[in-house]
Amino acid sequence: MSNKISKLKEKLHTNLDAAKSKFEEVKESAKNSVEEAKAKMETKVDELKSSFSDAQEKAQAKKEEVQASITEFKAERNAEKAKKKAESAEEYALACIVMVAAAIEETDSAIAKAIVAAAEAEALN
User: Structure pTM?
Assistant: First the structure.
């Protein structure tokens, strides 16, 4: 009987050691996943910053183009036509700003989701 108990005890220790080993593997895998997610998130943030910077430059160039166009129309046309053209250009510029703002909000949401996911993964460690 004590031989059976010894064998059972040995088997339980073997299973326990295997479970501990598996737990450590899963823990390491989760840690690596979090680190990979953080790296991807940082890369994406850098890409979005670059994209946003490009969008700002394009918006500034478009703004300057619109301002030059407005100046040209004012010089060539009467005040009323130039005023209507300016209003149209301003509406277009505002629409562009709204699009950029929407992109920023989407970016903020994506970043927040990535941070929450990373925090949740890290909490599992």
Answer: 0.38
